[in-house]
Structure formats: C-alpha cells, structure tokens
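Sat 14:20. Reprocessing the chain from the morning session after the first attempt stalled halfway. Input below, unchanged.
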Amino acid sequence: ELKVGSSSPERFLFLKKGIIETRPIKGTRPRGNNEPEDKRYIYELKNSIKDRAELNMIVDLERNDLGRFCEYGTVRVKEHAIVEKYAKVFHLVSTVTGKVRKGYDIVDILRATFPGGSITGAPKIRAMEIIDELEPTVRSIYTGTIGYIGIDGTMDLNIVIRTFIIKGRRFYYNVGGGIVEDSEPYAEYKETLDKGLALKETLEFFLYKNLSKIKNFN
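Finished this time. Tokens:
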C-alpha cells in the first residue's frame, strides 16, 4: 500500500473551456532570515543569467509541446520569469497558454506533453534517455503528475515535486535539480536541500507530535 502527500508548487497542465495552461518552474533561491535577505535572494534570482536561460529553454520546449495540439497563433507566453514566494524558497515561473484545436482530447494532450518539460530538460527525448541511463533507481511517482480530469473536459494536474510517499513504516521524498553546462555542483546540491526543507520540517514536526502513535504504526 502506498500513501502520498503532495504540496507541489508547479502546475503541469490546466484545461478549462478549451484553454490550456502550463506553468514551468526553473530557478530557486532560499528564503532569507529577514526581509533584506529575501530582497537579496529575489534580486539574485531575477538577474541570474543561468536560471533565466534554463527557464527560456523550457518555455520554448513547452510552447513546442502545446503547439502540437493548439490552434495556430494561439500559443503565448502569458507571464515570463515571475518570482513566486513560498515558505522556504523563491522560484522563477512562467505561464504558457494556448487554445486547443477541435478534434483533440485530453488523451492527445497528455501524449503530447507528458512528462513535463521542466523535469526532463531539453531536448526532451534525449534528456529522458540520459536520465534512464544514469539514474540508478526508477522515480516511481516522483516527477510524474497528480490531479484530476473532470467529466466536463476540465483538467488540473501538477508536477510531482515537494511530495512524500509512505511505504509501510517509512517516509520518502525526492528532490532534484536541473544540470546544465554552467551548473556548479555545490550550488546544485544546496538547491536540492533548499527545495526539500519544507517537507523535512513538516515530517519532523509530524513525527515529534505523533511519536507514541508511530511506535505502533503498521
């Protein structure tokens, strides 16, 4: 039996009244200990050539994916490189939208877009082949998608990040980062720790508050 708890900040696909939206995330900075530190990290993120280049690359990939099933000329970047604030991190986010062509359904959309480009990299197919070659274990639900598909044709799906799973008596969560030519190993490692901090603290609090119950957890 598998239990899943997800607090993903990233929207993979949102579909309503024929309009499709995806919101890729690229670029992360930790929250500061005070407002001046927050402002410094926001400035760093906004002005990071590396992070903006990564986001530009993925936005282009997502535009291409949406173009496979959207009406010509309707795929647009609605917002680009917006800084969003979360409990433990800042993220650089863009929004890409389009109008779905008649004759294309949700299955067609998923075939054209899954898995999300922000967690595969580009070029998508070759990046996935390299991931398969190098990663020693399968990802399971991590970097997949959770959400709903309505009978009215609506859909809202996330990217499975900031998500923990429970198998038996063990809790697991995955974190990762995008590797590009100018990545710095320690900075990428530190970024994964920043991304996992909110989940880590949440689980530690849960374990502390429920220690007596967990001793008998099946």
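The longest strand covers residues 89-99.
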